[in-house]
Design goal:
heterodimer; A: 99 residues; alpha+beta; five-stranded antiparallel sheet; 24% helix; 30% strand; disordered C terminus; B: 136 residues; mainly beta; Thrombin, subunit H; six-stranded antiparallel sheet; two-stranded antiparallel sheet
């Protein structure tokens, strides 16, 4: 039972966050030591049959900085904690900024 | 699970008082690494902020954030670094009279100018335009 308007709003807010978080994933970059570094976050979006991870330019930059010659050096974190090595598609865009 | 670009992106003209910022910080203390199982369990970052409409550009959404005055329930805490949250999603909180369970994206978090106490997100119209450039 919710006791006050404030608590009701808080409950609704958390419910939304719990649903929204399913669409937001961490993005990792491969390191030379066979490990991963956290690079940033991304939002999963689809349009018709195509699926995308929307993120920012400085996260995508890791792909060109990496010493690896082939494939992507970026991975998407999955809800179970595993890492998906099949990054959907990297497409540089005008989404840029820094934190 | 993917947001549908044709249905789940907020119209930029819609105005909401509050927005959730959701992403994953890159700091080591923000994730549990299970090396044996090859699993990484990052702790999500969630912040609820109000919109600043006065200085917005057509492409960017500005939200107020004060790193020292962040509240979660009855607790007050410091946000710390937001490194890694960039690329995360900004989602509007709908008014109580719009009792909709829909999750819609309002923007992609791109920048946190600390001195200006705000987070900046790219609006969905930019994202929509980029997606429309791609063949289906």
């Amino acid at each position: 039972m919710i006791a006050s308007i404030g608590e009701y709003v808080g409950e609704r807010s958390l419910e939304l966050a719990e649903r929204a978080i399913q669409y937001v994933r961490p993005i990792y970059g491969a390191t030379g030591a066979n490990g991963v570094d956290g690079l940033g976050s991304g939002v999963l979006i689809r349009r018709a049959a195509k699926r995308w991870v929307a993120t920012v330019k400085h996260v995508l930059k890791h792909n060109s900085d990496t010493p690896f010659e082939e494939g992507t050096s970026m991975y998407v974190g999955m809800p179970d904690g595993s890492i998906n090595t099949n990054l959907v598609q990297t497409q540089s865009s005008s989404l840029k900024g820094s934190v | 699970m993917f947001l549908d670009a044709d249905a789940d992106l907020v119209d930029d003209r819609a105005d909401f008082a509050f927005y959730h910022v959701i992403g994953y910080r890159a700091a080591p203390h923000a994730m549990d690494v299970h090396e044996g199982a090859k699993l990484v369990r990052p702790k999500p970052f969630l912040y609820t902020g109000t919109r600043i409409t006065q200085e917005e550009s057509p492409a960017h959404l500005h939200l107020q954030i004060d790193a020292m005055k962040v509240r979660h329930g009855n607790q007050r805490w410091e946000t710390g670094s937001l490194e890694g949250v960039s690329g995360g999603g900004v989602f509007p909180l709908r008014p109580l009279d719009q009792n909709s369970p829909r999750v819609q994206l309002a923007g992609i978090f791109i920048e946190h100018p600390k001195a200006r106490r705000r987070v900046i997100a790219t609006k969905t119209s930019v994202l929509r335009a980029l997606l429309q450039l791609q063949p289906c």
